[in-house]
């Protein structure tokens, strides 16, 4: 990966949006998959941030997983009309793009 900083920044933003979305959707019927994916995405973004910050030899591999998770989370959150879901989907898309580089 060439630019760890852009991935790191995007992961932090995505982590925050996923946590917010989880909090808002956790008790909502029909949002179970949204909550599951947001939790996974937040955890992967947190670890990805740590590995990118220390330029770990495993950062690129985890970034590839992060891209897949962010894309899945964005797809799921895009199905819902809530503002938190829309914000989360946007952050996930941005993170996926930043971590592909």
Descriptive tags:
single chain; 101 residues; mainly alpha; Substrate Binding Domain Of Dnak, Chain:A, Domain 2
Summed up, what is this model?
Helices cover 80% and strands 0% of the residues.
Largest sheet: none
Briefly note the CATH topology name. Substrate Binding Domain Of Dnak, Chain:A, Domain 2
Helix content: over 70%
Order of helices and strands: HHHH
What do the pLDDT scores average to? 94
Structural class: mainly alpha
CATH architecture: Up-down Bundle
The tally of strands reads: 0
User: If you compute it from the alpha carbons, what radius of gyration comes out, rounded to the nearest whole angstrom?
Assistant: 13 Å
Strand content: under 5%
**What general outline do the C-alpha atoms trace?**
elongated
Blueprint of the fold:
Elements lengths: L3 H22 L6 H22 L5 H19 L5 H18 L1
Helix pairs in contact: 1-2, 1-4, 2-3, 3-4
Structure explained in plain terms:
There is one protein chain. This protein has one domain (4-100): Substrate Binding Domain Of Dnak, Chain:A, Domain 2. The chain is elongated and about 40 Å long. With 101 residues, it is an all-alpha fold. The N and C termini lie close together (6 Å). Helix 1 packs antiparallel against helix 4 (83-100). It contains four helices and no strands.
């Amino acid at each position: 990966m060439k630019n760890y900083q852009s991935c790191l920044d995007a992961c932090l933003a995505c982590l925050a949006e996923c946590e917010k979305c989880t909090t808002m959707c956790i008790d909502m019927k029909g949002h179970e998959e949204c909550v599951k994916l947001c939790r996974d995405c937040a955890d992967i973004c947190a670890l990805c941030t740590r590995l990118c910050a220390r330029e770990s030899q495993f950062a690129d591999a985890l970034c590839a997983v992060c891209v897949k998770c962010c894309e899945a989370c964005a797809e799921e959150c895009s199905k819902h009309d809530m503002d938190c879901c829309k914000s989360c989907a946007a952050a996930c898309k941005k993170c996926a793009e930043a971590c592909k580089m």
